[in-house]
Structure formats: structure tokens, C-alpha cells
Amino acid sequence: MRYFIDLSYSGTNFHGWQSQANALGIQEVLEEKLSMILKEKTVVTASGRTDTGVHAKQQIAHFDTSAELTEDLLFRINCMLPHDIAINSFRPVNPDSHARFDALYREYEYYITTIKNPFARGRAWQFTKKLDFDAMNEAAGLLLKYSDFESFSKVHTDVKTFNCTVMYAQWERQAEHMILFRIRANRFLRGMVRAIVGTLVDIGTGKKNVADFEHILLSRNRGMAGAAAPPEGLFLAKIDFPEEVYL
Q1: Selected catalytic residue, list 51, 72, 134, 148
Q2: Where would I find the H helices in the chain?
Q3: Do residues 87 and 205 both lie within one domain?
């Protein structure tokens, strides 16, 4: 039987999602605990990889098992996992359903605190310079106009295409001193959201303008864009699937 696993995690203490030889990834921890509790080797495949220090409010992964999933499994696996990883649910899916390839869209959130806030430490980028909110949103709107995002991708990445369909991109005020960038797309390139945020912040400070942002998009040159925003403000927030993947 194949299952989708819905989980949340704080990425602070992990070197991203993917299992690695010399660093601890969330995938490694999850596979180890699932294999122990299911008494068989269990491999999980995620909807997408998050980088070192990046968090997930919702991550979806699939795994196959011949074991029977009892009602107390969710409680038992959460007891075994470290405090910064939580399983929210297991859901049976069709045997060919895929957490990565069947996703309709992914949504990321990026948080910036405009004051020193000890309660946002590790959860937001502390950026105290004044930002032009309107200019950042005008530039963000251009993301829906274009499909090639090579300018915001890490270089030397192994992808067949840099094309993505951005469905939503907007800055929102969460509180007096907290702002949020929310972006939704069918897929994301490596480092794409942090590169976009860093470049939009350059626009917010006046270092670049909206016309510059469009020029960067068209250039297909990562060197033209701004520096990547720090990882601690980034959250994978939501992944949506068609109903037909579920049993």
C-alpha cells in the first residue's frame, strides 16, 4: 500500500530534507524511525527538497509498506521523532500516486521582521531598513507575467527546464513589525524563492527599481539578481494534489 505522509518540521538543526553522507537530513531521520516502527526498510520521497535551515509547515512525502498501519501508529512515530519533526497524518493513495510529480502547486512563505525580535529568531529575517512595500509588490506582480526563472535559480543545477508557472506572488503585512511574502507555483527551482526575496528587498530599499527587476527576469542571468535571502525566514507552507490521487 502507498501512503502520503503529511509532516511539519523546523529546519534549523538539519542540513535540508535530503539524506546525505556527512550531514543529517530530515529524510534520513524519518526513514530510520519509520523503518523501525514498520519493521521493514522504508524509503520516503518528498514533494520537493528544502535546503539547510528552511522550515516546512506542510511537507508531503510518499512511501510504500506491506505493514498494517494501526490507529496508534501516528502517536508512536511522533514519540520516536525529535521535537522538531511532527507527523500530522497518513493517507492512503493510489499505488502510482507520486508526492513530487502529482502536486498541482507548492506554496512558500517568507517572513521578515523589521525590528529585533527574540521570538522570531530562526523563523524570520531580521531586516530593519525601511522598505517600499508598494514597489516590492509591483515587481512581484511581474513574476506572473513570465515563465523562465533561470535568473533566480542556483547555477549548475540539473534541470531540463527553468520554466515555472507562478500563480500568486504578494507581500502582506502580518503585524506592525512583521511582513510576509507568499508565492505559489506549479514548481520551484533550487534557491528560487530566496533569490526572488533577496532581489525584491533590493527594490524595497531602492537599490534596484521595478524596471531593473523585469530586466533581471529577461536576462536569464543569476548574476544580475540580488543575493539570496537567509534560509531561516523561508517556510514550505502548502502542497495541493488532485483528489483522484487518494483512495
Answers
A1: 51
A2: 26-38, 73-80, 133-141, 192-204, 210-219
A3: no
pTM: 0.95
CA distance 211 to 208: 8
C-alpha cell belonging to residue 166? 507562478
Q: Reduce the DSSP state of residue 191 to 3 states and report it.
A: coil
Please report, rounded to a whole number, the percentage of residues in the chain having pLDDT higher than 90: 92
- Give residue 68's pLDDT: 82
The full DSSP string for 10-50 is: --TTSS-SS--SSS--HHHHHHHHHHHHHTS----EESSPP
Is residue 109 located within the same domain as residue 208?
A: yes
The residue ranges of the chain whose pLDDT is under 70 are none
The yes-or-no answer on residue 51 being catalytic is: yes
Q: Do residue 177 and residue 212 come from a single domain?
A: yes
In a domain, 244, yes or no: no
Q: What is the pLDDT of residue 229?
A: 98
56/78 Cα distance (integer angstroms): 16
- Report pLDDT for 71: 79
Q: What angle do CA 62, 67, 70 make, to 5 degrees?
A: 90
Q: What is the structure's pLDDT at 175?
A: 83
In DSSP terms, 59 is beta-bridged to: 7
What size, in residues, is the chain? 247
